[in-house]
Amino acid sequence: MVVRARTIFIMAAALLLVSCHKEICYDHHHAGQHLQVIFDWGELDPTTVHGMTLLLYPEDGSAPLRFPFADIQGGTISVTSGTYNALCVNDDELLHLQGEESWETVSVTTGETGLVARAAFNNTKSDIPRAQGSEEEPVLREPPLLYTATRMNFYVKAAEDTQQILRLAPQMPLGQIYVRVEAVENARFLETLSGVVTGLSSSLSLTTLKPSDDHCTMPVNLTLTEDGHLEGWLNYFGHCPTTELPHSLAIYTMLIDTSKQANIYDITEQMHPGEGKEKDKNHEVIIPVLPLPTPEPAEGGFDINLDEWNTTSIEIKM
């Protein structure tokens, strides 16, 4: 019985060691060389960063090693000698890593969300209008600030009592869309508003910094300013890496009588630079006017049972 129990224990221990290297190895006790990891922020301000993750991909194709850092300046780890591709990314619960098992597939995305916050729109039960062509796009959250860096073919020497240095300089690869509506008709009757932009990439490769061909819709937070216009900023992964898609800005509003409007603007020309112009991830989307109707109060006050959406499609030229 003793021999049998010992055999079972040895087999179980062997399985645990093998399983560590099937996908991603979280066992950080790799006896070997001391490696000092430095995150060089340069002129960036990392005050919003609460932690960093380092992924090391061995040249031999074995499972990547994952090292979390609470200190955003870096720290010391121990790894076996060899050649690695290194990748770092900031920790944020809204950033979702996918494809971590391979250097070629590791990317970042965000989680799904609603087209609008239904509670803010009187718990609307009607189907919310969507821009033509975007009906099947998932709605993903806006990514928070993303900081990442890579270094390829980094060699860890087999040298005793020598601390080697891996220095990584994080950059911010996200693009930004600035949305501005110059005028809002009947703004005094506005109760709630929300906006989305369509045709945006749903993820970003962390090794090539190229946005994905898969596309999504992302909400943009719009605010009515004191001088009567709307504006908002949207961080996003990019768009149209290989094929140009149409893009729309949909602005959803509810008035004080709970009537609901969907104004859908074709902003394709503002998102796509003209021929001969350099592509840029940063864009300005300018809308001349958001037309809102004048509420018509029912007898005894406003009708609070309106749930249908009135939809207007508008083409915006550059």
Structure commentary:
The chain is 7% helix and 39% strand. It is mainly beta and 318 residues long. It has one domain. It has a 5-stranded mixed β-sheet with strand order 13-11-16-17-19, with no helix packed on it. Strands 3-2-5-8 form a 4-stranded antiparallel β-sheet, with no helix packed on it. The protein has a 4-stranded mixed β-sheet with strand order 14-15-10-18, with no helix packed on it. A hairpin with a 4-residue loop joins strand 16 (248-255) and strand 17 (260-266).
Structural class, judged by helices and strands? mainly beta
Q: Percent of residues in beta strands?
A: 35-45%
Q: Strand-and-helix sequence, N→C?
A: HEEEEEEEEEEEEEEEEEHEE
The average pLDDT value, as a whole number, equals 88
Structure summary, number of beta strands: 19
Individual helix count? 2
The main pleated sheet reads as:
5 strands, mixed
Question: Strand order across the biggest sheet?
Answer: 13-11-16-17-19
N-C termini distance:
82 Å
| Computed CA radius of gyration, to the nearest angstrom | 26 Å
Low-confidence runs (pLDDT<50, min 5 residues)? 1-22
Give a short synopsis of this structure.
The protein has helices spanning 2-19, 268-271; strands spanning 33-39, 52-58, 65-69, 74-79, 82-90, 96-98, 107-109, 148-156, 164-168, 175-184, 190-201, 204-205, 215-220, 223-224, 230-236, 248-255, 260-266, 283-290, 309-315. It is mainly beta and 318 residues long.
